[in-house]
Predict the 3D structure of the following.
Amino acid sequence: MAREVEVPETVVRRLPIYVRALAQLEAEGVKTISSLQLGRYIGVTAAQIRKDLSYFGEFGKQGRGYEVSHLLREIKRILGLTRVWPMVVVGAGRLGQAIASYDGFKPRGFEVVAVFDNDPAKVGQRVGSLVIRDVAELPDVVRTHGVQIGIVAVPASEAQKVADLIVAAGIRAVLNYAPTALHVPEGVRVEDVDPVAILQSMTYYLVNSGQRDPVTADLHGAATPAVESAPER
């Protein structure tokens, strides 16, 4: 039996970028596109696109490129986006409520079906069309809706406890907004969303870009335009 080829994680992470680009191209009325054109559109090489797609089959024709609608459907199928995935949000603070209210999930294949909190003052309040539930109800909701994706939107001090709870309820994929590392059993996927960490990585490139820091330069007088002294009288 042939061994199944393992797809590198970097390739999997690029597939949603292809989906977004192809959806935009389809909306613009583009029918076909070459790997070179698609690569320029999303900022990778044509060779990289051909290599990425080769893990999943043959999608284009030599000299004709890719049919945009067909390639979009195929990559969505690969990513499991031919259905709507129900999700739950745990944590009904400002962040959790913003996530639960976000209307960009449904068009892309995801739907928040419930939001939970352990604060009695929040339970029963509405977040859009949803009513905040007591976290004790989470296992029943996960089972009833067949939920496999959970979003953690609680403070770092509570995040591991919440992760344990949702994994025990049957969640297999966790999107973690708490600024802390979560420990989950093998077979459960965790993705961290930490805007501060992303900003910190961006500042690395800012300070290592070869350009003088304008604030520092000004403090040291290097970037301050020279002022001609008045002639002596």
Residues 9-79 form a domain with the Arc Repressor Mutant, subunit A fold (CATH 1.10.10.10). The CA atoms of residues 221 and 229 lie 16 Å apart. The chain has two domains: 9-79, 85-195.
